[in-house]
């Protein structure tokens, strides 16, 4: 059996009494590609927030690579090998697409190596390749403030890939992308899954079907059910709270 | 209802929209499709008055509104749900909703939030006193739609309204929008990636590289067109 | 004991209420609109000068007019500074929304100009400036309304503006020069001059509430020592004025729809416009309101301090501190912060703390070192920094996911 | 803009050195002593402006308290100069306030080396400390600005109130010698002038190096979205503290050179107005462009000298108007304006293509 | 600062310039260097007015050495640095024959090295804290023994022994209070407290609390506050029920102009010590006040620093005429012993660069002017180095005698 890369034990997050996460127990193996779905407000994004240290759990603990991350700051957690894409694209608007990528690709993120170590040739090729993958080669050198919403989404996915952490947390990667792009992103994630652990959150069920091996459904801050895509899709509780009656298709 | 002709829009020196012609007839639902970055949002913003066209006219219910400010356009009855939600983060959900009333022509006494809104988006009811910015992404999107509906617009401009919303609610939104169009006779201009929703519209326009390249009835929207303009 | 407690309480509240009334306008302009208004102090100065003028007019009328001039002064000061604020907003600030740090620089320029303005304003200058504004802004307005949609105009806009600017400057300069040559002293004499001007409180405000002459039981006076208390009427007046203003503002922002609009516009201007909020009107009203409050504050402090070109500039830091410590955009916070800072300042500077800590000698020395007015400021700043270590975003911090964005 | 490619670096270095040489050799010939001294002082002010541009233009930290660091640097060197008295004597002002023994902390300033190091080390330490306390708590934006502003008041009150230690309001004035050279002598001043230019050039390249390359990009990223930077794995607090400390050091050096050339340092440098003015120089020149900082400083200061000489009574009007115009009409400062409009006039209009593939695909007949 | 630092060949260049530049032309250029903007503009602008008036009068009467005086006005902007820069400019660029200027001690201290290094000449018109005697400065205001010390003596004799000292956080008040404390100790008075306000601060509640605590049954307040704080102080004193009958306040920075700005109501019955009041009854004063009002408006008042500035210009003119040149060294030598029937009475320029002056105590009356209630029978000779303060006790200054100079031991 694979060792666990990520585990949460009885994690509760409450905001002024409202429990966004409620006694959540979750675990993920090394190298696993896991999809998390669930109704709006189920706590998916909060879950990622907890893992990356943006939100401290009110109770319970999050264990990454065997370490409780509670006492670490955000950037330290990231340096332990977690990367994240935000739900709405967050990129550095005054940098160009390639600079954005370069910033994430940088391995050593303390001050001194940032100052004194120059980037390697191989990094440059890697970034070129990435730009190609996310379809932004032609816009690589304009300020990323001038990108459209979908392009920003893709750029942020690219940044995550450039960072290449052990665990990728991907929050709604294909929202606002065209079907074709959705397909590309799916392929990209599948390819990455060969060497990384990935946690994906998405509402686009086409996409979920495409990549999913194991799906976890969150509801009101705790796991509603877990299983492969067929099981989940046909679970009446999931249909009730999440999928709805897909009458035609 | 809405008639756009020969519209050219620039961001600084870069030419984004090129000679766009588009019209939304009264009581109809029109959908705009196109790949990422072709200028859909730009067109929506221009209709709303957030961007100034360099040439061309925008005609809304028989008046040319080129020189009108966004708030005047809102008061004339254009309701806008922007891409990226644009919730006012440090106002409560209730306050966000009440802002929707600003677009009404006559002042509303004793403002209240109609039940119909909550029927469509039940979560909002439980969160009235929460800060708008604290909501989850999908909840914010629902709030954005609800807020615009509060204003009882005549033309609803929706920019990817279903982004980040759970499947069951998407279905409800689709049904609701369809229902609104049919019962109240307002017009809708929709930008959407979900084909399912696109097919609810009466008419479609396909956009590529800043220009309209195809249009027609959605019932005739063939796989071929989709292939050409939505995929490479 | 009771007496000294009451004394400290009163002095703390009165110091705090001066701070608060000065900070109110800023809490709106900075707290709600996000404009760092460095000219706030000068707006207060305008209010103070208005008081001076109203006082002089009322002095002419004499009697009851003079005794009640302060009320007219407050109203006039409010209106006048509000109008000025409106002009400021329409002329400058509105180009700078969303760039708070730039507003700081622009308003700093405004404050320099205002200071110099009251020093040297005379008829010549008045005529010159009015003419210039008329020509320049009038011209601009015509240009804008005629050629706005012309693509070429947008491109050469800065050139045209530059040309217009120099032309108007030249015309108004020559005209002013002509006047000053022809009419000499009568137009050249400054209205106010660089000196302070004298604002004397109406007689009923000049003295104070003397507890020893008050009709209260003797035991209260003697055993409890209340007889030593003496509360200046001006201070009491300002406390009341502050309460009135705070309540007024509270009602305006919470009970009228404007509060909601203002908050919406400052948080997301474009979207608010799309919702049908007339953003420009909202901006104008808000800025005018904030400025008007500064005017009231100016009228109030003219009862305590000097009225001169530098009136108000001493308040600017303290008022910003009040707003920051209270939590930006939070009224209750500002109130508590003002009272807190006021009381702390009084306690430290007056050396009351040295008495309180009399049993602990090292602390006495420590507090003694800080018990001058200048050093008290140093200590209060230290306290504020310490406080912010604990609550980085003020007493009532904004919470939730959105704060970082 | 970016230090890219060996060739453009060489051109830039060459250009900078050429300008420096002009300043060193040509200016003294053209300008009178008084004007040259003025230029020297403005150039030392340009050094602070560079530091401010570093933190404001690139990192988005608007410090309204750089006067503190400027002043600290000035005081450090001035203390050394005031100690140029015969053995056993005290700096002249101390006698007036009945000080009979040199205060402890003055002692080390007997050594020039110590004083020289102190000119930037003391400001660095203070800036670092203040920065650490503030940034650690993620205090940002206007909060930071207002805190720095309040800090100036504290320092001002302190230096202003301590007559016995620093001669209070008067400040340290009336320097006699440095290395046996008479400070007020023209030849000595010329040395200071040249040193100022050397340090200006060095500071320019330091800032240039910091702001180009990866470090600079992290700074810009911090300006854009600080909390996002954390999720890219960088610790913005470290970066900000470092940059703030560096810019404090730069201000300290500038203060020292200014003091040498102006012949005094006083708590006035720690008044709020002065710190705000520094920011304005950068704004006028164009923030985020190092050249702009230098240009803006010279421009504003010369304008001020000019106006105050020509219209002694009204120059505040002009100064105020200048700020207003710059901020409203030239939001990107002079350099920004030159880039957008000026270049357009000279060169042909730059073409920005939005849909790079458009032209080809039209050929293909999509 | 025993002697000016540069003595190698000081007058060479300046002499040259002042003879070539200023004598060849039709005019003699003089510099006026005061704050026209900033905090100090309040006080300094009227001094400028007085100086301009003197120059205008002199020009109307034929000028100096047959030439008109041309005044070059520079703004020190209440900023010491600017003062120094402008002093340099006036001397180097404009090559003026003399500079009239400064108000605050800090500005004077800052330009002093400039005038000394360039061996130029400044006429300084304001009463000040003393402890200075520069060869390049003429002080036409009072030294402490011509204002503060007599005021303290008078208070001790007539008003009480317990003193509370209030001042601005600034050189003059601090030095003055040092002298007062020493004097009180020597003459049987008592300092019960002191406090300093940052310049411009108006929150005086803590100070008033302290005064009430230190002097519960009344006593003397000695006030060296500067500028704006005075207004706040007196307004709030009255509000707090602290009135001159129990708490007489002696001020040394409040003159007719300030009374006007503070409001007579608040000041009536308080005291001030000066050499000149507008109410001084001399023919010269009558003329001065009349001329001033005619020039600047009938609502204007005159005060001590204005008068000192005004006579400064006249004294300089007399010295130039005696020397028959604007050569600085000769003018300096000619200045010693100059007398003038000034508005304040007869003044004599001593060889220590200060004037002998009559000292007066005034009480604010209803019309905002001062009732002179005490005045020395003869002019008091200036003592720049204070004799109460131990570190300067026994020192004096005499520039007419090269062996003595700026600070020599008398005993
Ligand atoms: N700071 C906060 N204060 C109050 N409530 C919060 C806060 N943050 C999150 N919530 C609430 O917690 C719940 C979970 O939010 P979360 O963003 O994790 O949902 P989600 O599963 O990502 O939903 P979506 O699919 O819509 O993105 C929501 O109901 C939200 O309103
Ligand atoms: N502020 C801006 N300045 C310059 N160019 C911009 C700006 N905003 C967008 N663009 C460019 O305009 C083009 C159209 O953008 P727009 O946002 O309208 O696309 P879209 O069709 O809405 O795409 P998406 O489906 O990704 O939302 C894009 O190529 C984008 O790069
Ligand atoms: Mg989410
Ligand atoms: Mg879009």
TrEMBL record, chain A:
> Which InterPro entries does its entry note?
ABC_AA/LPS_Transport, ABC_transporter-like_ATP-bd, ABC_transporter-like_CS, ABC_transptr_urea_ATP-bd_UrtD, BCA_ABC_TP_C, P-loop_NTPase
The residue ranges of the ABC transporter domain are: 6-245
GO CC field: plasma membrane
Q: Which UniProt keywords apply?
A: ATP-binding, Nucleotide-binding, Transport
- The answer to whether UniProt assigns keyword Transport to this entry is yes
Gene3D superfamilies per UniProt: P-loop containing nucleotide triphosphate hydrolases (3.40.50.300)
One Pfam short name: ABC_tran
Task: List the PROSITE patterns.
Answer: ABC_TRANSPORTER_1 (PS00211), ABC_TRANSPORTER_2 (PS50893)
Keyword Transport found: yes
From the UniProt record, which GO molecular function terms apply? Answer: ATP binding; ATP hydrolysis activity
Origin superkingdom: Bacteria
Question: Which PANTHER family does this one have?
Answer: CONSERVED COMPONENT OF ABC TRANSPORTER FOR NATURAL AMINO ACIDS-RELATED (PTHR45772), HIGH-AFFINITY BRANCHED-CHAIN AMINO ACID TRANSPORT ATP-BINDING PROTEIN (PTHR45772:SF8)
Q: What's this protein's name?
A: Urea ABC transporter ATP-binding protein UrtD
From TrEMBL, chain B:
Q: Which GO terms describe its molecular function?
A: ATP binding; ATP hydrolysis activity; branched-chain amino acid transmembrane transporter activity
Start and end residues of each ABC transporter domain: 2-232
Tell me which SUPFAM superfamilies the record gives.
P-loop containing nucleoside triphosphate hydrolases
Please give the InterPro entries that the UniProt record associates with this protein.
Answer: AAA+_ATPase, ABC_transporter-like_ATP-bd, ABC_transptr_urea_ATP-bd_UrtE, BCAA_Transport_ATP-bd_LivF, P-loop_NTPase
An individual GO BP term: L-amino acid transport
Which superkingdom is the protein from?
A: Bacteria
Q: Which residues cross the membrane?
A: none
Q: What keywords sit in the KW lines?
A: Amino-acid transport, ATP-binding, Nucleotide-binding, Transport
Check the record and name the CDD domains matching this protein: ABC_TM1139_LivF_branched
Instruction: Show the Pfam families listed in the entry.
Output: ABC_tran
Similarity comment text for this entry: Belongs to the ABC transporter superfamily.
**The protein's name in its UniProt record:** Urea ABC transporter ATP-binding subunit UrtE
Organism of this sequence: Mastigocoleus testarum BC008
TrEMBL record, chain C:
The protein's location, in the record's own words, is:
Cell membrane
Query: GO CC annotations?
Result: plasma membrane
Q: Name one Pfam family in it.
A: BPD_transp_2
Q: Which domain of life is it from?
A: Bacteria
Has keyword Transmembrane helix?
Answer: yes
By its UniProt entry, which CDD domains does this protein fall under?
TM_PBP1_LivH_like
- What membrane topology does the annotation report for this chain? Multi-pass membrane protein
Q: Molecular function (GO) terms listed?
A: transmembrane transporter activity
Task: Identify the InterPro entries for this entry.
Answer: ABC_transp_permease (IPR001851), ABC_UrtB_bac (IPR017779), BCAA_transport_permease (IPR052157)
Chain segments annotated as coiled-coil in the UniProt record = none
Q: Which UniProt keywords apply?
A: Amino-acid transport, Cell membrane, Membrane, Transmembrane, Transmembrane helix, Transport
Transmembrane intervals: 12-36, 69-88, 100-117, 123-144, 156-179, 230-253, 285-307, 319-339, 346-364, 370-390
Q: What biological-process terms (Gene Ontology) are attached?
A: amino acid transport
* The family this protein is said to belong to: Belongs to the binding-protein-dependent transport system permease family. LivHM subfamily.
Q: What is this protein called?
A: Branched-chain amino acid ABC transporter
Please tell me the species this chain comes from: Mastigocoleus testarum BC008
From TrEMBL, chain D:
Keyword list, A-Z? Cell membrane, Membrane, Transmembrane, Transmembrane helix
GO cellular component terms attached to this protein's record? plasma membrane
Pfam families named in the record: BPD_transp_2 (PF02653)
Cell compartment(s), UniProt: Cell membrane
InterPro entries, A to Z: ABC_transp_permease (IPR001851), ABC_transptr_urea_perm_UrtC (IPR017778), LivM-like (IPR043428)
Keyword check for Transmembrane helix: yes
Which stretches are transmembrane?
9-32, 38-56, 112-135, 142-159, 190-207, 239-258, 278-302, 314-338
What GO annotations for molecular function exist for this entry?
branched-chain amino acid transmembrane transporter activity
Which membrane topology term applies here?
Multi-pass membrane protein
* Protein name in UniProt: Urea ABC transporter permease subunit UrtC
């Amino acid at each position: 059996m694979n060792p666990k890369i990520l585990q949460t034990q009885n994690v509760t997050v409450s905001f002024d009494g409202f429990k966004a996460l409620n006694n959540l127990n979750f675990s993920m193996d090394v190298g696993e590609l896991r999809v998390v779905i669930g109704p709006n407000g189920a706590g998916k994004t909060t879950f990622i927030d907890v893992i990356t240290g943006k939100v401290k759990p009110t109770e319970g603990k999050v264990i990454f690579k065997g370490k409780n991350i509670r006492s670490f700051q955000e950037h330290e957690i990231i340096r332990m090998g977690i990367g994240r894409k935000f739900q709405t694209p967050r990129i550095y608007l005054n940098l160009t697409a390639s600079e954005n990528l370069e910033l994430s690709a940088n391995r050593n993120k303390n001050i001194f190596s940032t100052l004194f170590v120059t980037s390697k040739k191989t990094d440059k090729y890697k970034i070129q390749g990435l730009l190609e993958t996310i379809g932004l080669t032609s816009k690589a050198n304009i300020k990323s403030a001038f990108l459209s919403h979908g392009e920003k989404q893709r750029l942020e996915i690219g940044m995550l890939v450039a960072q290449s952490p052990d665990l990728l947390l991907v929050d709604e990667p294909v929202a606002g992308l065209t079907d074709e792009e959705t397909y590309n992103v799916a392929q990209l994630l599948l390819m990455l899954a060969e060497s990384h652990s990935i946690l994906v959150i998405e509402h686009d069920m086409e996409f979920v079907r495409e990549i999913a091996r194991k799906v976890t459904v969150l509801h009101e801050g705790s796991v509603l059910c877990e299983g492969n895509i067929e099981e989940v899709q046909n679970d009446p509780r999931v249909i009730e709270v999440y999928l709805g009656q897909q009458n035609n298709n | 209802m809405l008639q756009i002709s020969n519209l050219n829009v620039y961001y600084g020196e870069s030419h984004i929209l090129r000679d766009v012609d588009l019209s939304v007839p009264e009581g109809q639902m029109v959908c705009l499709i196109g790949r990422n970055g072709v200028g859909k949002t730009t067109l929506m913003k221009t209709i709303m008055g957030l961007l100034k066209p360099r040439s061309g006219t925008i005609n809304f219910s028989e008046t040319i509104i080129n020189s009108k400010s966004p708030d005047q356009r809102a008061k004339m009855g254009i309701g806008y749900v922007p891409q990226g939600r644009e919730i006012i983060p440090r106002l409560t959900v209730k306050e966000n909703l009440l802002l929707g009333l600003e677009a009404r022509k006559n002042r509303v006494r004793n403002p209240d939030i109609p039940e119909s809104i909550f029927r469509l988006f039940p979560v909002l009811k439980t969160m009235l006193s929460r800060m708008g910015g604290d909501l989850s992404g999908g909840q914010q999107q629902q709030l954005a739609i609800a807020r615009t509906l509060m204003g009882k617009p005549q033309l609803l401009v929706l920019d990817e309204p279903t982004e980040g919303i759970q499947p069951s609610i998407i279905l409800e939104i689709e049904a609701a929008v369809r229902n609104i169009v049919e019962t109240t006779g307002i017009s809708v201009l929709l930008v959407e990636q979900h084909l399912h929703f696109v097919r609810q519209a009466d008419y479609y326009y396909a956009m590529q590289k800043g220009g309209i390249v195809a249009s027609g009835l959605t019932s005739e929207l063939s796989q071929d067109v989709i292939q050409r303009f939505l995929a490479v | 004991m009771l007496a000294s407690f009451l004394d400290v309480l009163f002095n703390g509240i009165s110091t705090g209420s001066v701070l608060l009334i000065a900070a109110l306008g800023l809490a709106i302009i900075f707290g709600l609109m996000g404009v760092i208004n460095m000219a706030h102090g000068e707006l207060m100065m305008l209010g103070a000068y208005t008081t001076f003028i109203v006082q002089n007019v009322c002095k002419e009328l004499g009697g009851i007019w003079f005794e009640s001039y302060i009320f007219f002064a407050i109203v006039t000061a409010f209106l006048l500074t509000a109008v000025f604020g409106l002009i400021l907003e329409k002329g400058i600030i509105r180009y700078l929304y969303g760039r708070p740090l730039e507003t700081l620089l622009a308003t700093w320029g405004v404050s320099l100009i205002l200071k110099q303005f009251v020093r040297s304003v005379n008829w010549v200058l008045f005529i010159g400036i009015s003419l210039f504004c008329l020509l320049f802004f009038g011209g601009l307005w015509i240009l804008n309304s005629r050629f706005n949609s012309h693509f070429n105009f947008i491109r050469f806009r800065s050139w045209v503006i530059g040309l217009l600017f120099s032309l108007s400057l030249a015309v108004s300069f020559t005209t002013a020069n002509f006047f000053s040559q022809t009419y000499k002293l009568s137009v050249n004499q400054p209205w106010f001059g660089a000196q302070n001007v004298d604002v004397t409180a109406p007689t009923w405000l000049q003295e104070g509430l003397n507890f020893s002459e008050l009709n209260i039981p003797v035991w209260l006076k003697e055993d409890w020592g209340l007889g030593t208390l003496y509360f200046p009427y001006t201070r009491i007046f300002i406390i009341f004025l502050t309460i009135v203003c705070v309540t007024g503002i509270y009602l305006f922002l919470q009970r009228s729809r404007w509060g909601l609009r203002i908050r919406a516009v400052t948080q997301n201007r474009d979207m608010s416009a799309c919702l049908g909020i007339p953003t420009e009107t909202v901006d104008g009203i808000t800025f005018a309101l904030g400025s008007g409050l500064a005017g009231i504050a100016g009228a109030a402090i003219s009862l305590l301090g000097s009225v001169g070109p530098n009136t108000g500039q001493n308040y600017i830091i303290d008022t910003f501190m009040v707003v920051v410590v209270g939590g930006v955009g939070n009224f209750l916070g500002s109130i508590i912060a003002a009272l807190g800072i006021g009381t702390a300042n009084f306690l430290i500077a007056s050396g009351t703390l040295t008495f309180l800590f009399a049993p602990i000698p090292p602390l006495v020395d420590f507090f003694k070192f800080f018990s001058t007015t200048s050093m008290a400021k140093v200590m209060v700043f230290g306290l504020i920094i310490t406080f912010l270590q604990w609550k980085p975003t003020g007493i009532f911090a904004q919470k939730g996911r959105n704060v970082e964005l | 803009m970016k230090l890219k490619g060996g060739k453009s670096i060489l051109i830039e270095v060459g250009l900078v050195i050429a300008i420096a040489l002009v300043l060193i050799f040509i200016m003294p010939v053209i300008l009178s002593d008084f004007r040259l001294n003025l230029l020297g002082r403005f150039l030392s002010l340009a050094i602070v402006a560079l530091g401010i541009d570093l933190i404001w233009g690139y990192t988005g930290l608007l410090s309204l308290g750089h006067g503190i660091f400027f002043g600290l640097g000035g005081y450090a060197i001035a203390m050394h100069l005031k100690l140029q008295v015969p053995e056993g004597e005290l700096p002249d002002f101390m006698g007036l306030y009945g000080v009979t023994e040199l205060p402890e902390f003055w002692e080390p300033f007997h050594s020039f080396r110590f004083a020289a190091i102190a000119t930037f080390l003391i400001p660095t330490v203070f800036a670092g400390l203040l920065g650490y306390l503030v940034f650690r708590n993620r205090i940002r934006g206007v909060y930071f600005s207002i805190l720095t502003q309040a800090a100036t008041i504290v320092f001002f009150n302190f230096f202003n109130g301590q007559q016995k230690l620093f001669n209070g309001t008067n400040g340290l004035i009336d320097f006699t010698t440095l290395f046996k050279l008479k400070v007020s002598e023209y030849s000595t001043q010329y040395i200071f002038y040249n040193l100022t230019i050397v340090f200006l050039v060095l500071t320019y390249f330091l800032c240039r190096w910091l702001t180009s390359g990866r470090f600079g990009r992290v700074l810009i990223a911090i300006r854009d979205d600080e909390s996002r930077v954390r999720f890219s794995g960088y610790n913005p607090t470290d970066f900000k503290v470092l940059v703030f400390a560096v810019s404090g050091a730069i201000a300290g050096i500038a203060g020292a050179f200014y003091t040498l050339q102006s012949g005094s340092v006083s708590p006035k440098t720690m008044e709020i107005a002065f710190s705000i003015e520094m920011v304005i120089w950068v704004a006028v020149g164009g923030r985020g462009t190092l050249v702009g900082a230098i240009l803006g400083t010279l421009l504003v200061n010369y304008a001020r000298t000019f106006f105050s000489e020509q219209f002694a009574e009204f120059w505040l009007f002009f100064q105020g108007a200048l700020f207003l115009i710059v901020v409203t009409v030239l939001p990107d400062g002079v350099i920004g304006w030159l880039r957008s409009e000026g270049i357009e006039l000279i060169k042909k209009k730059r073409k920005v293509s939005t849909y790079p593939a458009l032209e080809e695909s039209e050929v293909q007949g999509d | 600062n025993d002697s000016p630092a540069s003595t190698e060949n000081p007058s060479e260049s300046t002499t040259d310039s002042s003879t070539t530049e200023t004598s060849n032309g039709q005019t003699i250029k003089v510099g006026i260097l005061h704050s026209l903007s900033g905090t100090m503009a309040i006080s300094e602008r009227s001094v400028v007015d007085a100086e301009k008036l003197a120059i205008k009068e002199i020009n109307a009467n034929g000028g100096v050495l047959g030439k008109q005086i041309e005044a070059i006005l520079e703004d020190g902007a209440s900023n010491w640095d600017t003062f120094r820069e402008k002093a340099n400019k006036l001397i180097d660029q404009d090559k003026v024959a003399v500079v009239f200027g400064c108000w605050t001690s800090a500005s004077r201290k800052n330009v002093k090295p400039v005038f000394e290094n360039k061996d130029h000449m400044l006429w300084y018109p304001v009463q000040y804290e003393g402890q200075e005697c520069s060869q390049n400065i003429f002080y036409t205001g009072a030294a402490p023994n011509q204002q503060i010390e007599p005021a303290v003596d008078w208070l001790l004799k007539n008003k009480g022994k317990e003193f509370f000292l209030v001042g601005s956080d600034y050189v003059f008040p601090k030095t003055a209070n040092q002298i007062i404390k020493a004097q009180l100790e020597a003459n049987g008075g008592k300092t019960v407290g002191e406090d300093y306000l940052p310049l411009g601060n108006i929150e005086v509640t803590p100070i008033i609390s302290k005064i009430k605590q230190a002097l519960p049954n009344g006593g003397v307040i000695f006030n060296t506050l500067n500028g704006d704080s005075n207004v706040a102080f007196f307004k709030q004193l009255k509000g707090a029920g602290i009135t001159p009958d129990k708490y007489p306040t002696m001020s040394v920075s409040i003159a007719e102009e300030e009374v006007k700005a503070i409001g007579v109501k608040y000041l009536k019955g308080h005291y001030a010590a000066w050499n000149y009041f507008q109410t001084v009854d001399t023919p010269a004063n009558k003329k001065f006040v009349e001329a001033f009002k005619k020039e600047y408006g009938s609502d204007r008042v005159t005060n001590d620093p204005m008068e000192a500035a005004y006579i400064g210009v006249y004294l300089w003119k007399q010295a130039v005429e005696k020397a028959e040149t604007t050569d600085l060294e000769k003018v300096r030598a000619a200045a010693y012993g100059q007398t003038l029937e000034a508005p304040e009475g007869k003044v004599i320029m001593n060889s220590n660069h200060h004037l002998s002056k009559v000292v007066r105590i005034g009480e604010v009356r209803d019309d905002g002017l001062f009732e002179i209630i005490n005045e020395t029978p003869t002019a008091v000779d200036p003592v720049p180095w204070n004799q109460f303060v131990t570190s300067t006790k026994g020192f004096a200054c005499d520039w007419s005698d090269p062996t003595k100079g700026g600070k020599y031991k008398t005993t």
